[in-house]
Give the backbone structure.
Amino acid sequence: MPITEVTSDPIALTMTMVGEYPVPIERLWEAYCDPRQLERFWGPPTWPATFTRHDMVEGGRSEYYMTGPDGTRSAGYWRLEEVEPGKRFSVVDGFADGDGNENTDLPSMRMTFTFEPTDSGSRFVSVTTFPDADSMQQLADMGMVEGATAAMSQLDDLLADLSAFASGQAVSTDLLSDTKVRVSRVIRGTVDLVWNAHHDPELMQQWLLGPDGWTMPVCEVGREVGEAYRYEWESADGADRFGFEGEVLDSMPPNRSVTTERMIGTDGPQTVNEMTLTPVAGGTLLAIVITYPTRELRDQILATGMTDGMEVSYQRLESLLPAAVG
């Protein structure tokens, strides 16, 4: 286990953890940026974590829960205060209730992670600062030190897996809850280019087409909070046509966008789509968390082959991005 040091300082109200790994610093940093990877080591083995939101930018927010052996859930959040890509980030880490709201009955803490190269790879140093001695003791009594050590021991195997999260992989789908799904893919292009590709109507009409044989005659984009959007697709022979519309709920260019989505011409329920773009090795990690009103609708939509169509579209997008650079 490459955790080389775990120390507590009751005077400074800190807990410090040091780990060294035989991988480049970029690989270690990426493990914290990608929610699919972070989930594999943030919670202890018996309390694995699930991240339903992860904005690795200053002013961003992450939300997660850990599930115990009996199904009990313990929720938490990060409030991202500082992010220096590849070098350092700091968060306020606290407890949350079942709806993701901050639970002020339990103490929050400030955590700072620093990354640095070594002769054999890379090292991280995490320093957790507690608000007071009582809070430090309360969290220690809850098993924080043992839990953190057990959780971080899982990072070895994750870092050794060099291919599972690399660029060139097809769309992956993770079921986060009965109503939430995360769709992820690394797109070969910068964050700015991928963001623009989702907000430039002319470019969208070239790649956001799903399987071959469809066109996108209507592409009305919403960019600001409160603005509406409308997308319509038509089969090449003109026989079939469908579309979606919705509203922008939140926008943090070029990293995060939240929209509603409902099928045009129906009274069906709408979804909420949260898109996050994060720079990683090989391009941009695109993650879309879709919240459905029911589990049944979630399963029904996934069964249509939705992600297969998304993969075809993203392949098209990658073929267009080099031209967009010029």
